[in-house]
Amino acid sequence: MSARDVHGVEPPWGDAFSVIGKPHRKVDGLAKATGQALYADDLTLPGMLHAKTLRSPHAHARIVSVDTSRAEALEGVHGVITGADLPTPYGVIPWTPDEHALAVDRVRFVGDEVAAVAAVDEDTALAALELIDVTYEPLHAFLDPHEAAERGEPAIHPARKKGNVSKHVELEFGDVEAALADADVVVEGDYFFHGTTHAPIEPHCALARYSADGLLTVWSSTQITHYVHRTLSAVLGLPAPRIRVVQPCLGGAFGGKSDPFSFELCAAKLAMLTGRPVKMLWTREEVFYAHRGRHPMHMHYRTGADASGRLRGVDARILIDGGAYSSFGLVTTYYSGQLLTGPYDFPSYRFDSTRVFTNKPPCGPKRGHGSVQPRFAFEVQLDELAERVGLDGIEIRRVNFQGSDTATVNGQRITSNGFAECLDAVERASGWKDRHGKLPLGRGLGVAGSMYITGTNYPVYPNEMPQAGIQLKVDRSGLVTCFTGGNDIGQGSNSVVAYLVAEELGMDHRDVRVVAADTDLCPVDLGAYSSRVTFMVGNAAIDAARKLRGAIVGAVAGEWAVPAERVRMVGGAVLDLGDPERALTTAEAFQLAEARLDTLGSTGSYNTPPLGGDYRGGSIGASPAYSFTAHVVEAEVDVETGRITVSDAWIAHDCGRALNPMLVAGQMEGSAYMGMAEALLEHHEVNRFGLHAGPSLLDYRIPTSVDTPELHALIVESLDPEGPYGAKEAGEGPLHPAIPAISNAVFDAVGIRLRHLPFTPAKVLAALAERAPSAAGSGS
Amino acid sequence: MLRLPAFELARPQTVEEAVALVAEHGEAAAVLGGGTDLLPNMKHGLVTPRVVVSLASIPELDALAVAEDGTLVIGATCPLAVLASDERVVAGWPALAQAAGLVASPQLRNSGTLGGNVMLDTRCRWINQTHFWRKSLGFCLKKDGSECHVVAGGSRCVAAASNDSAPALMSLGAVGVFAGPGGRRELPLESLWTTDGIRNKRTDPGELLVEVRVPATADGHRGAYGKLRDRGSIDFPLLGCAVRLELDETGAVGGADVVLVALQARPARLRRCGEQLGGTTPGKADFTAAAAAVAEAARRQARPLANVPGDPDYRHAMVPVLVRRTLEAAGGGGGPVHPL
What we know:
The structure holds 2 protein chains of 2 kinds.
Chain A (H helix, E strand, L loop, with lengths): L28 H6 L14 E7 L5 E7 L1 H5 L3 E6 L23 E2 L5 E7 L2 H8 L3 E6 L6 H6 L14 E9 L2 H7 L2 E9 L11 E6 L5 E5 L4 H12 L6 E4 L15 H13 L3 E4 L2 H7 L6 E9 L5 E11 L7 H10 L10 E8 L15 H18 L3 H7 L6 E2 L5 E2 L4 H12 L1 H4 L7 E11 L14 E7 L5 E5 L8 H13 L6 E5 L16 H28 L6 E4 L2 E4 L2 E7 H11 L4 E6 L19 E12 L6 E11 L6 H20 L29 E7 L21 H13 L10 H11 L9
Parallel strand pairs in A: 1-12, 10-11, 14-15, 20-21, 27-28
Antiparallel strand pairs in A: 1-5, 2-4, 2-6, 3-5, 7-15, 8-13, 9-10, 9-12, 13-14, 16-17, 18-26, 19-20, 19-25, 22-23, 23-24, 26-27
Helix pairs in contact in A: 6-7, 10-11, 10-18, 14-15, 15-16, 17-18
Chain B lengths: L7 E3 L4 H11 L3 E4 L5 H6 L7 E4 L9 E3 L5 E4 L4 H6 L1 H6 L1 H8 L4 H6 L2 H5 L12 H6 L28 H7 L3 E6 L2 E6 L19 E7 L6 E8 L10 E9 L5 E9 L6 E2 L3 H5 L7 H17 L10 H20 L9
Parallel strand pairs in B: 1-3, 2-3
Antiparallel strand pairs in B: 4-5, 5-8, 6-7, 6-8, 9-10, 10-11, 11-12
Helix pairs in contact in B: 11-12
């Protein structure tokens, strides 16, 4: 990290911000609301073909033969490809390239891709799929991760030579056994997190064009343009400079569009083969099969504390059901342990996490990647601990608060930390002191806390280059265009870039345009994952804007023959602080600067400082800044039906500085909603045939507006020293406490501990019956 | 998105034209009301009509009227949203208004029709899926296969009636008017549904539901509908319960009827609930005790299967709760019971 990567938390001009901190509309808000925004499936090109994918009906099978001749003979079919056409394996993590665009010799889950067809229209392509003859030799299918952990044959990935273990990580910090032996109280228990998926509104879609001069362009609904670019080059054998990847407007991703996917590779390959543009749009069912959602985790925790409730040691053993491929699984396995070490001080900690392959849709990163599941287990266990030592749920979290400017037990640097303020905020807003433990039977309050990364210094593939780059171009009309590789997936990162550049240049943010996620036009950014974009692209944007500002101010100061300190850019004008009569419009200043200097523009970048513990994997989860969250939820339990109704969720989130409080609140509400959905309704379930139990938005129960509680977003601003004007992430952290807070509220309501997700009414009834067969009416 | 297979759309202007079209094309024809059930089923390959006969251009079919004798006359294409909010229906046939108001979601009720809901095909977690999905497990008894995945070794399809309006209409003694090549005939809806999940209606090929006639209710009529589902909207019933009570001048129950749906292919009437509830007075202890007894009898009578989504044991446990709460709601002039 160089000086250019840290820009301070203060307004660039004087005491107050002009653009930052105000609830401006998103730059693409009206386009989306009016239907003018162009998503991948809105794009069409002359002569465009439509492509469809043939998928495996078996959970695990060897492919004996594939015969495409009948499909190729169908009128209207222009191209048919199989695994033999794209034999190069790939994977988003370069160390685990175990995927193929189309299966080469083996299928690993129901829905695995086997062949693809490009035809004049979708119906013809679908008809052609029916004419592809595949002979399978079914193999034993692993649907239970415990079985996969114990039994290596048949190996789902025979080349990996580790049975069916995808990744194993065991790390210990301090002497956990000794700490637990010395503890006054030890709570031990099993917890289960089921699978859930992202369910973005927009299904995945790509359009590929291969021009006569050998240039490939792929428009794709990806959240990481750069990795798609690299993977297309590797798998297609095409030099990267001959490939352009563009992300159009995106209809939600939540981590589900982070991997390079078969549909991008197949659309590109078919475009190259046919010489025609090729579009592939997935059905909703296909989105469920592609998955990459939340890993099911079987978790065993032991937590010890002294009599005052201070934590002594935490010991975790986790079995992770990875599904059929690695995806981000290496990182998931680390994250399942590495991200638990705040906002509480752990004197000692150990985790032993094993990810196994199973014959189910592959899991990957979903909002709060790898850490939502352990956070659920731990925050419920912490509540159990509080009960044992006689502390209030908020009090035990205060007692163990790690503070700011400290280090975690696993060597992560903590800078700003507003968790204590988050606890204060939810305590106050929910009326906790007067109401917790005092509500009528069936109604309760629960609290939980969490921490999450704001990006990580682990760049997926090792390199010394910046994580985020940006380029500013100045137009004589007074327009500044920002070119950023960052992916706006609805979180509003393009808007943030416009606000930051406008603030630095004293401009109206509507005169700042953002061109993003186009590999021909934009400097590389590593994409929208790990909650990194606002922090990293934001810092790069300030870096670039300050360089440009220096040039413009210098040119104006030279023209006016005054010291540069007297020149201020504010409100769309350039002023002389020493002479109120002297002023230029921004456009005039740009023209003046261009005349005196050169064509105007600037670049900026951001890279993380050296971070992380000095051990293998110590940089995974090492973030330049951590966000912190506390939730209190109010839940009602019908003891006769077992139904849990969450009436209110108070969400306090430390986002550093709220660059746009409306967007921050939106992320907080969306996160809390998604967590509640996972706790109460959503279940990515695979049935006994290895088939997804209901791959549709009818059977996969996403809460509707009437199922959604009142969401109270309470923004806490800790002003991080390294964030752009002090900002940290807001898109993922606020999800974490939602789930354990509901479990803890149910305990307050009816005295049962829900340790296994999802919290179905049947589970509630079973727990009520188990607790006190004759006393369903005694409550808390 | 899933492709809708190609078909020819016919837009007859009269019932007679519609009947003629259905007669002409036989099994290759399908009747389109609001399309909220037919079109997804076509996308899933469950029905493959060559000709879709839309009823949208037959003006008389969306009527909603009260006849001189007090009969409620509902045209087959009357939107569920209209039925649910009509003040006459809300007041006179509350169980029906409540049931119609709990079908699917607001948008789907604007499009979906009462006729479509009455004629809804049975549903099952193993059938209402895409062609690829069903093919992956070798299809099932209801279509294209020979195995039942709900009941191992089962030879009889147990897909469930999933129409919220059905138990309400049955409890109200409603009659369906069907038009066919031989003219019109009336069929008590009581007799419409069968226990065959593959085809659970006793209509002749070529017959078309044109209207539903619901007898007038007396002053002492009480009714309510209760529905179990996971979410507060959209979902088909995991259980549905319609209650009808007829109170005499003293406020005591003279007659009672309870009909359940989403258990088997046919809505199921509870046996002998009139005897148990007769003479008791809503709001008083005797009614509460009788309602609890009816609920317990319902638990014994009902056998939820793993046909619709969800845990059948949980659904079974909810049968008495739903029945009791819906009885209490009807007795108190309230309802609907939702969420349960």
